[in-house]
């Protein structure tokens, strides 16, 4: 039931031309592309590879997420909650973006239940718990720091060396820069107290 529901949801989205997901992978691949500036000769960061697509600073958070094959569940949920337009807005926003594999860790039926129209408010609460106002890059996140989410509750940052955790969810890809904020890919869905 779970797979057929998502296939139906994603097939409809593909038919509308809104999802450009490539082959699904279960691990996050990162790659930074650098080019030399002709005027200064210095390296300039062009983007980060996430889910088989290059995430570039010229696109907004949603436009970048649409290209990631690892975030199709998140994109479908954002649309179902009516949050796409907000996350395409000026911002800036910091988004902790769970992968498809992160959603798969939830108890069976959780995602399907949240995607039902009558649960739109609960879904929006879960999703906005993953969003913090402002543009916070990995260098701005400190061990023990509390982040107040758009949803109203707080997230706790834990750092050990280069590893960053958000309420126990590990950041697998940091600093995906978009025109209206920054995204950090996480391996677990973090849930508010609801």
From TrEMBL:
Keywords: Signal. SUPFAM superfamilies: FAS1 domain (SSF82153). Residues 1-23 form the signal peptide. Residues 58-190 form the FAS1 domain. GO terms for cellular component: extracellular space. SMART domains: FAS1. InterPro entries: Adhesion/Biosynth-related, FAS1_dom_sf, FAS1_domain. It holds the Pfam family Fasciclin. This is FAS1 domain-containing protein. It comes from Rufibacter tibetensis.
């Amino acid at each position: 039931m779970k797979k057929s529901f998502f296939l139906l949801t994603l097939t409809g989205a593909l038919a509308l031309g809104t999802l450009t997901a490539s082959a699904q992978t279960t691990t996050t691949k990162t790659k930074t592309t650098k080019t030399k500036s002709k005027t200064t000769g210095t390296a300039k960061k062009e983007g980060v590879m996430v889910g088989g697509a290059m995430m570039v600073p010229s696109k907004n958070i949603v436009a970048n997420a649409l290209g990631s094959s690892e975030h199709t569940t998140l994109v479908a949920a954002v649309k179902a909650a009516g949050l796409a337009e907000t996350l395409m807005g000026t911002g800036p926003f910091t988004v902790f973006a769970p992968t498809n594999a992160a959603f798969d860790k939830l108890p069976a039926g959780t995602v399907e239940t949240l995607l039902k129209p009558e649960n739109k408010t609960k879904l929006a609460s879960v999703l906005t718990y993953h969003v913090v106002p402002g543009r916070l890059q990995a260098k701005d996140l400190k061990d023990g720091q509390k982040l107040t989410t758009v949803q109203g509750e707080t997230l706790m940052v834990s750092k050990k060396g280069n590893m960053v955790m958000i309420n126990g969810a590990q950041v697998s890809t940091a600093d995906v820069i978009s025109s209206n904020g920054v995204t950090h890919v996480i391996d677990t869905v973090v849930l508010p107290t609801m």
